[in-house]
Amino acid sequence: FAGGVALRYIRSDLYSGTGEESVHPGNAFAADVNFSYLSKIKVGGLKSVVSAGVNFSNIGSKISYDDVEKEFLPANMRLGGSYLVNVDEFNSISLALDFNKLMVPTPDTSKTNSNPDYYNDMSVPKSIFSSFADAPGGMKEELQEITISIGAEYWYNKVFAARAGYFHENEYKGNRKYFTAGAGLKFNMFQIDASYIIPVEQNNPLANTIRFTLAFDLSQYNKK
Q1: Which residues of the chain fall short of a pLDDT of 70?
Q2: What's the longest Cα–Cα distance across the chain?
Q3: Which among 24, 81, 120, 222 counts the fewest CB atoms within 10 Å?
Q4: The pLDDT of residue 90
Q5: 30, 60 contact by CB (below 8 A)
Q6: What is the pLDDT of residue 5?
Q7: Residue 191 and residue 214: Cα distance in Å, rounded?
Q8: Could you tell me which residues come within 8 angstroms of residue 59 by beta carbon, excluding any fewer than 6 positions away?
């Protein structure tokens, strides 16, 4: 078992250069909390690793750009698990599945029409807990707000990786649907990864997006 906490200060200057004099940069504080579980097992004589985790992110204060309208941070809950199997000394394969849900109020005009400040006056704790049962369409709409991510990864000799995945979002909640393909190279201290997004829908703003990641493992610094 493991757990972690991350704290952050946020400064957002969305209106910089727009000439708006009535707005100013927004400031907020937030925290992430996560818990994970990992277990080494044997399946069919092969060494395997089963893991699961939950992450609550962007739990913090509201942010405002004019001291009047206060916006919720994109508080988020992610729940997932993975299974890794070492096929032999050089090859390993892993599968992962994630469920993701924003913990912010679902817009409901029936509430704002009678009270325009309904969401502005709502506290952050209330918004988080109510986000699981406040959709106007009931439980059906609540389930539509959950995004699903699945992925697979292959490693050769812990040096080269090949990856593939799929992201699904309901058509009424953003309609982001795309496949991903990627690869990675790992050296002694650093690792470089790249991925390419393949959208399912035409005219998707994420089309032809390439992502790069560079990571450093400082624990390898003193190892020969």
Answers
A1: 18-19, 223-224
A2: 68
A3: 222
A4: 93
A5: yes
A6: 97
A7: 6
A8: 30, 31, 32, 33, 73, 75, 124, 128
Burial label for 182, CB within 10 Å (0-12, 13-18, 19+), is buried
Amino acid at 203: N
Token representation of residue 74:
């994109």
* Angle subtended at Cα 127 by Cα 123 and Cα 131, rounded to the nearest 5 degrees: 175
Encoded tokens for 135: 């959709």
Report the residue count for the chain: 224
Q: What separation in angstroms does the CA of 121 have from each of 54, 112, 221? A: 29, 11, 51
What is the rounded CA–CA span in Å between residue 178 and residue 40? 32
pTM of the full predicted structure? 0.84
Q: Is 80 within 8 Å of 99 (Cβ atoms)?
A: yes
What is the pLDDT at residue 224?
57
SS3 per-residue string spanning the chain: CEEEEEEEEEEECCCCCCCCCCCCCEEEEEEEEEEEEEEEEEECCEEEEEEEEEEEEEEECCEECCCCCEECCCCEEEEEEEEEEECCCCEEEEEEEEEEEECCCCCCHHHHCCCCCHHHHCCHHHHHHHCCCCCCCCHHHHHHCCEEEEEEEEEECCCEEEEEEEEECCCCCCCCEEEEEEEEEECCCEEEEEEEEEECCCCCCCCCCEEEEEEECHHHCCCC
